[in-house]
Each structure stands twice: as structure tokens, then as C-alpha cells.
Amino acid sequence: MPKIGFIDYFLDEWHAEKYPGWIDKATDGRMQVAYAYGKTNIEGKLSNDAWSEKKGIQLLKTIEEVVEKSDYLVVLSPDHPEYHEELSRLALQSGKPTYIDKTFAPDRAAALRMFELAEQYKTPMFSTSALRFAAEYAGIDNAGIESINSLGPGKFDNYAIHQVEPIVSLMGTDVRRVMWTGTDKTPSLLIGYADGRQATINLYGWECPFNMALSYEAGMSKFMTIESDFFGAFITKLVGFFESGNPPVSSEETITIATILDVGMQAAKTPHQWLTLK
Description:
Blueprint: E1 3-8, H1 14-26, E2 32-38, H2 48-55, E3 58-59, H3 63-69, E4 72-75, H4 84-92, E5 98-100, H5 108-120, E6 125-127, H6 135-138, E7 145-152, H7 156-159, H8 161-171, E8 175-180, E9 188-193, E10 198-203, E11 211-216, E12 221-225, H9 230-244, H10 251-267, E13 275-276
Parallel strand pairs: 1-2, 1-4, 2-3, 4-5, 5-6, 7-10
Antiparallel strand pairs: 7-11, 8-9, 8-13, 9-10, 11-12
Protein name: Oxidoreductase
InterPro entries: NAD(P)-bd_dom_sf
């Protein structure tokens, strides 16, 4: 039975809690999360020892042990991407299929270094927001999209990824500039493409569902609210990646997304001014 190892900043978090059961269900028990490592314990959360005992997953003392014992690797820390490069270094040198949770990297430079390391050691690797795989997006004709207006919940630093990811998957990677148009409480970022197309992301608090309006060059428009089981679709893609070693998301798209978020954070300091992507 193929064994999956978790590498996390701390283990008592939502993704680490849910992924083992979802993977077990998606594979009819053919794959199991068997090992885990947590860098630290967090006040107010279960200790890594207590979490592992509760989940029936063996806690290991080092990342080296997790990498050595596991067939496939998942680097979590979904709300602390500043630790992804550190936590993933040995995994990316292992040659074993490795998934790195959202948000992939805190900046473009880190994203490039991580992909370069994976390429050097021929390690299959990808990262994504689960929203990319929502059934509503899968049915969209992306030919001729002129503009997208996207809305959703959360804060910019850890939830903007869920809107930028689908936009790049639908509109492509030729993004040239971004402009901050929001406020502290309602972040908003305008994304400008080289050919004049554009997209906007808006974050309107935790009560706001993910939804999107699209306009086509031919004059048609489309509006949708994301209601499908996008996490289920993501887990199916993750399992397929482990089995095939073929990443379902290109490095070009992931680096573009990381760059948009990186420059977007800088743009918040100079609202209503275009900043050119690196």
C-alpha cells in the first residue's frame, strides 16, 4: 500500500485534518497518510503528538524520516507559506511526487527557487488552490474571455490565491501589471493582461461565497456561484498525480500566480497605481 507523508508547520489545522479521510475515500483505502512531521506546536491547538495519536498517524521526529519512509509527500502549512521552502527542501530533492499546499510561495523568488530545486532532482511537484478544479470552471469556454470579475471570502494574504488561480487557468499567464483598488477591509486587485484583457479579484469577508462574472469579446456574459465539491475534485487530481507523476498544473501558471500575489501585496502600499510584474 503506497504511504503518504505529511510535512507541516503544525498539524492541528484544517487541511491536515481533512485530507487523510478524503484520500482514503477517493482510493478505497489504496493510499493512506501514514507519517507526519510538525515543525512546532501552537498555543490553543492540539500538540503534534496529540493530533497524531487522535488521527492514528505516526508522528516522526524529522523531515528526513518522513521523506525516507513515504512513497508520496504532501507539504502542508496552508496559512504559513513562508515556511514552504524550508519544509519542502528535502522532499524536492527526493525524486518522489510532492504536492505543496496553497499558497505555494510567499514571493516570486521563492517560487522560482523551489521549481528549480525540483527540476534539478527530477522531482514531480505541483501546487494549486482546490478552487481551480471546481466543476463550474471546468464547463467554461475560455476562448474569447475579455474580462473577469471575481468575488470571494477571506483575507488577501491567504485567500486571494483562490480567486487568482481560476483566473490564470482561464485567461492564461501573459499578465503584465496589477493595481490595488481595494481598502484594508475589502481588498481588491486589478490584473492587466498584455493584450488589454483584465480581471478583478474582490474579497468581501467570510460571508461572501466564491462567484465570478465573465464577459466575452463577442458580447456574451456568464455568471456563476461556486457550489460544487471542489475539494473532492482536487483530491482526485492529487491521487492521479501520485499515481502518474504528471503534475496537473504547469509550473508556468503557478509561478505567474505567485508573481501576481507577490506584486499585489506591494501594490497595496501604492493604491490606484499600476505595478509591472517582474
